[in-house]
Design brief:
The complex is a heterodimer of chains A (110) and B (113).
Chain A lengths: L3 E3 L4 E4 L4 E7 L6 E7 L6 E6 L3 E5 L2 E6 L4 E6 L8 E8 L5 E3 L3 E6 L1
Parallel strand pairs in A: 2-11
Antiparallel strand pairs in A: 1-3, 3-8, 4-5, 4-9, 6-7, 7-8, 9-10, 9-11
Chain B lengths: L4 E3 L2 E4 L5 E6 L6 E8 L3 E9 L2 E5 L6 E5 L5 E5 L8 E8 L8 E2 L3 E5 L1
Classes of the chains: A mainly beta (110), B mainly beta (113).
């Protein structure tokens, strides 16, 4: 079983819809959870970072962590065509090694 | 301020050759991490340097090595290239270590023929 599982997509949704992106993990030692966005031909950029179970909101983005289920989610409200990118979940333990999911390709249809 | 820069952006090599990739972190950042990104394996951690010392290493063979200079610039080297080394190599810099926010460069696209 991979340490981090993420559906590669592609996921296509109409503009304005709510997008839900998810990852599951197997290592209960993971304490820090991140979401990165990667546009084509660019490096990833950090969107959200959290270390506790529950929700964290930043503008149109909400990160959700459920440590008991080993499940994390990223919600995008009022999705825009500019949100079209690959979204990578990432997590790390106390040794600070970061493990990334393979990424979900998201297409927002105008 | 300028972001993370990586050179070269594209590189084509043949099997058996070696390659050196360069990364210049954001000014003031002392941590540099390297990652390999492929469609099949995704983004995989190679190693992390802080103040010229390797702090963490991923599960890659010894053909992959790196170093960091006193000005925080970093290089990674891959010897005896294999076809499977074709990938996007990303460098990320951070002010500190651990969970400090990492800023990624655009990557070097390496193709091994």
């Amino acid at each position: 079983q991979k340490e981090v599982e993420q559906d590669p997509g592609p996921l296509s949704v109409p503009e304005g819809a709510i997008v839900s992106l998810n990852c599951t993990y197997s290592n209960s030692a993971f304490q820090y959870f991140m979401w990165y966005r990667q546009y084509s031909r660019k490096g990833p950029e950090l969107l959200m970072y959290t270390y506790s179970s529950g929700n964290k909101e930043d503008g149109r983005f909400t990160a959700q962590v459920d440590k008991s289920s080993k499940y994390i989610s990223l919600f995008i409200r009022d999705s825009q065509p500019s949100d079209s990118a690959t979204y990578l979940c990432a997590m790390s333990d106390r040794d600070d090694k970061i493990i990334f999911g393979k990424g979900t390709r998201l297409h927002i249809l105008p | 301020k300028a972001g993370v820069t990586q050179t070269p952006r594209y590189l084509i090599k043949t099997r058996g050759q070696q390659v050196t990739l360069s990364c210049s972190p954001i000014s003031g950042h002392r941590s540099v991490s390297w990652y390999q990104q492929t469609p099949g394996q995704g983004l995989q951690f190679l190693f992390e340097y802080f103040s010229e010392t390797q702090r963490n290493k991923g599960n890659f063979p010894g053909r992959f090595s790196g170093r960091q200079f006193s000005n925080s610039r970093s290089e990674m080297n891959v010897s005896t290239l294999e076809l499977g080394d074709s990938a996007l190599y990303l460098c990320a810099s951070a002010w500190g270590v651990g969970t400090d926010t990492q800023y990624f460069g655009p990557g070097t696209r390496l193709t091994v023929l």
